[in-house]
Design the sequence.
């Protein structure tokens, strides 16, 4: 079943076109890398999916509902691109930040109940950060902060997890550990993952499918098919294509 | 005179009660405003209230009845200008602030005889608060506190990370309007305590003092409220015994608390 269905979606800022007639489907359980150069419209597409922007043309359905009327926000977990965009003076503890992920479940009087507190404790344990729960987020390392924000995205047990360049602030060892956690979430919980990345070499290592965007969709399919595709050769040249695909033991 | 005799004075009791309620409001809202880098909104709205109070005095209407709706509208104007004119909040605050002052100055110059009254609002005098003003302050304070309690999680989420808050379905524009509207009411109430010129100090100082020493947001809220109430009580008491202006004394006590918190943080680090 397609959990996201986009048809002829276009979006422009002023006179500049950010998305041009984009159509695609994403199925439950997919692990998709959304790849493309700077200014390709990746973040814009995600903002439209999250309801932060409205497309100029076309339609997007999420969980079979038009994105403009979709209100089950707890079904979507979101890890923003800049985890350091929060105010470092803000004295929020890890447990307070993770609990923010549960507000999407609540309607008017947003108060945390016993079940909510248990859900927060559980997700902190899953991500191995229970010992950090009373620490100020601003005092944590980049890797620890990333886990806290991932826990915030996952605490509502979403069916779709959107990660906007999550590895940008992580050193290699922590990055590997981070992606192992994401892979486990995808495999065990069948959570659909959309991973936005610049790093084309990273794609085949974790994601099964790739959506290559450069204002319009250049390629959408399995990474193994991409390695053999003419589109990739045109974009990256034979040598780079060979290097990337060889890295992942693909033909 | 003993402290017990002093506490028997009705005007001191009224000042303590109204001042404490208003201090609680300022401390709570101030923390959200400081963390959202909107500290100077108090300054801007108090300047807008200068124009509104002048308007009230000009027409012979109780100034606060005019000031509350006008300052509320000014707060909405700040949000609206920031969004529609695509300018930063500080510029929008600057516009509303200067128009308020300019309006007040023009009204004062064309009127005859209310300049002395207007001057009293510039520096406030909590010791002259009447019984009806105390009830008015308590009623509005309870209303604002209920609103903060009701929207606490929304305010927390938007203050921490507005983009994420919006992605979770929180109506961030509405939360911004609520925050500025509550601030507008609080600013008008606080004018009685410290005056137009010093309102922003009551919003900023308890919050920044609490941020020096607190771990966790709820802790910071509690400490901010504690500091604000202590400064009002000490300020009123000191002003009476030393025969100095109450509003300015409250601000100086707040500054001393900030200095101690700041030093304590450096020493304990």
Sequence:
């Amino acid at each position: 079943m397609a959990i996201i269905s986009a048809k002829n979606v276009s979006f422009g800022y002023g006179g500049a076109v950010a998305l041009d007639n984009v159509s695609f489907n994403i199925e439950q359980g997919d692990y998709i890398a959304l790849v493309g150069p700077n200014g390709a419209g990746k973040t814009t597409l995600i903002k439209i999916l999250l309801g932060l922007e409205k497309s100029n043309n076309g339609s997007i359905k999420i969980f079979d509902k038009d994105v403009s009327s979709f209100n089950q926000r707890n079904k979507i977990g979101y890890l923003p691109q800049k985890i350091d965009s929060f105010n470092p003076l803000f004295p929020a503890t890890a447990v307070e930040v993770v609990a923010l992920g549960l507000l999407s479940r609540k309607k008017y009087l947003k108060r945390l109940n016993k079940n909510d507190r248990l859900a927060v404790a559980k997700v902190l344990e899953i991500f191995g950060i229970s010992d950090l729960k009373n620490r100020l987020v601003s005092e944590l390392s980049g890797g620890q902060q990333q886990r806290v924000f991932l826990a915030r995205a996952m605490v509502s047990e979403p069916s779709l997890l959107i990660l906007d360049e999550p590895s940008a602030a992580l050193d290699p060892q922590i990055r590997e550990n981070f992606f192992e956690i994401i892979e486990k979430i995808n495999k065990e919980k069948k959570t659909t993952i959309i991973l936005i990345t610049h790093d084309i070499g990273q794609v085949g290592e974790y994601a099964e499918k790739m959506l290559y965007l450069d204002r319009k969709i250049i390629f959408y399919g399995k990474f193994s098919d991409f390695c053999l595709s003419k589109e990739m050769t045109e974009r990256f040249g034979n040598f780079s294509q060979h290097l990337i695909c060889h890295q992942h033991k693909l033909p | 005179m003993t402290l017990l005799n002093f506490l028997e004075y009705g005007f001191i009791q009224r000042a303590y009660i109204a001042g404490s309620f208003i201090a609680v409001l300022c401390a709570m809202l101030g923390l959200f405003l400081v963390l959202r880098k909107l500290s100077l909104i108090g300054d801007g709205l108090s300047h807008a209230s200068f124009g509104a109070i002048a308007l009230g005095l000009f027409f012979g209407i109780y100034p606060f009845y005019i000031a509350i709706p006008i300052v509320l509208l000014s707060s909405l104007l700040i949000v609206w200008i920031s969004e529609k004119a695509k300018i930063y909040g500080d510029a929008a605050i600057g516009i509303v602030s200067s128009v308020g002052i300019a309006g007040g100055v023009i009204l004062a110059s064309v009127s005859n005889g209310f300049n002395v009254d207007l001057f009293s609002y510039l520096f406030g005098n909590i010791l002259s608060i009447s019984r009806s003003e105390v009830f008015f302050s308590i009623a509005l304070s309870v209303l604002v506190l209920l609103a903060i309690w009701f929207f606490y999680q929304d305010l927390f989420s938007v203050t921490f990370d507005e983009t994420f808050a919006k992605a979770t379905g929180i109506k961030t524009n509405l939360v911004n309007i609520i925050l500025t509207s509550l601030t507008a009411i609080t600013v008008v109430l606080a004018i009685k305590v410290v005056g137009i010129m010093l309102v922003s100090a009551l919003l900023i100082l308890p919050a920044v003092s609490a941020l020096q020493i607190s771990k966790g947001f709820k802790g910071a809220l509690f400490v901010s409220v504690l500091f604000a109430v202590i400064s009002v009580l000490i300020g009123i008491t000191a002003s009476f015994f030393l025969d100095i202006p109450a509003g300015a004394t409250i601000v100086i006590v707040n500054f001393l608390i900030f200095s101690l918190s700041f030093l304590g943080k450096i020493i304990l680090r």
Remarks:
- Chain A has eight helices and ten strands.
- The interface with chain B takes residues 50-52, 71, 73-74, 76, 78, 80, 85-87, 89-93, 96-97, 100-101, 103-104, 106, 109-112, 134, 136, 152 of chain A (CB under 8 Å).
- Helices of chain A lie at 42-49, 94-99, 114-126, 142-154, 172-189, 200-206, 223-227, 230-247.
- Chain A has a mean pLDDT of 84.
